[in-house]
Design goal:
Purple Acid Phosphatase, chain A, domain 2; 7 helices; 5-stranded mixed β-sheet
């Protein structure tokens, strides 16, 4: 149990100690067939001195497309999420909602977003909050997409329209927590790297400064700010030295962690992108990379990570618990 202490009186050193204590109660990972789905070994509402204020499901990297039974797989995941005895009250999505429109033409992009929208209408009864991934941005690879950059739905516009969002990054409050949603994808020619543009970084700095110290903060990004599994996404050591591309983990992680260091109420960061599962605890902040609903892009498991999603319980004292849940989708092998 994290000691009861007003968050606005917590020093950084105390915050780190509290986070270390939290590791003993928040690290559950259940990656299996999903047979144990009704009884997730997490906390119950009002259990003990602290109170659970929100149970959410983090679904990332759905990569919805007409091929590989991806629509059926995503529908199965949504049904699984909503079938828990103690089911989540909110779904947050982590980006790469469709297979890809970064390098796709207009017709292919429309087919993917139409399938995505139909599946949510038919299969989801829970409220949703969305994050945009690199594969959700239309046409930035102009060579392959055939775009000019002058299209009305170019770039983020198509995803924002489908998802009903006013901005590619934003903040909102729910259940006593502040949620900060970031846009990780920074354009570099026909490709991208993972970083915040200056406008967004300044906005993030102001948002955290304006957030009361007593209000815990959850940060949602598509690409991990900090990740261990990024080292295993490909053969990053093949030439005798570790080389993790800037498109796999935030290249500006140093200045983001420096910013978080000044705000000890930043407690938890959720991401996807890597299609692997890890947890990194650093300077009082926990970074969860939460696998992929699509596993290996609907081909089965990606390395040791099966198709799944994460359940996260948030508590009124700023603590949390989490579990990665496989939903038993085998995929379509090559």
């Amino acid at each position: 149990m994290i000691p009861e202490m007003p968050m606005n009186s917590v020093s950084r050193r105390e915050a780190i100690a509290r986070a270390a204590a939290a590791m003993g109660l928040g690290g559950a990972v259940l990656a299996g067939s999903g047979a144990a789905m009704p009884g997730i070994a997490l906390g119950r509402p009002g259990a003990g001195a602290r109170k659970r204020v929100l149970r959410l499901a983090h679904l990332t990297d759905m990569h919805v497309q007409p091929e590989r039974r991806a629509g059926e797989g995503f529908a199965a995941a949504l049904r699984h999420v909503q079938s828990h005895d103690d089911r989540p009250e909110l779904i947050v999505t982590g980006g790469d909602l469709i297979m890809d429109c970064f390098a796709a033409d207009e017709a292919r992009t429309r087919a993917q977003w139409d399938l995505w929208s139909r599946l949510l209408r038919e299969e989801c009864s829970l409220p949703l909050e969305h994050c945009i991934g690199n594969h959700d941005i239309w046409g930035w690879n102009q060579e392959k997409s055939g775009t000019t950059g002058r299209e009305a739905m170019y770039g983020h516009a198509w995803a924002l329209d489908v998802l009903g969002l006013a901005s590619r990054y934003r903040a909102f409050d729910r259940a006593g927590w502040r949620f900060v949603v970031l846009d990780s994808t920074f354009r570099v020619g026909n490709t991208y790297t993972a970083r915040l543009d200056e406008e967004q970084f300044e906005w993030l700095s102001r948002t955290l400064a304006e957030t009361p110290r007593s209000r815990p903060v959850l940060v949602l990004s598509h690409i991990p700010i900090l990740s261990a599994s990024a080292f295993f996404d490909g053969e990053c050591e093949k030439d005798g030295d570790w080389k993790v591309p800037g498109s796999w983990m935030h290249i500006d992680a140093r200045r983001i962690k420096d910013l978080f260091f000044r705000h000890p109420n930043v407690r938890l960061c959720l991401s996807g992108h890597i299609h692997l599962v890890d947890r990194v605890d650093y300077l009082g902040v926990t970074y969860l990379c939460n696998g992929a609903v699509s596993g290996a892009w609907w081909k089965g498991s990606n390395q040791e990570c099966e198709a799944g999603y994460c359940i996260v319980d948030l508590y009124d004292d700023g603590s949390f618990e989490h579990a990665y849940i496989g939903f038993g989708w085998a995929g379509v092998p090559d």
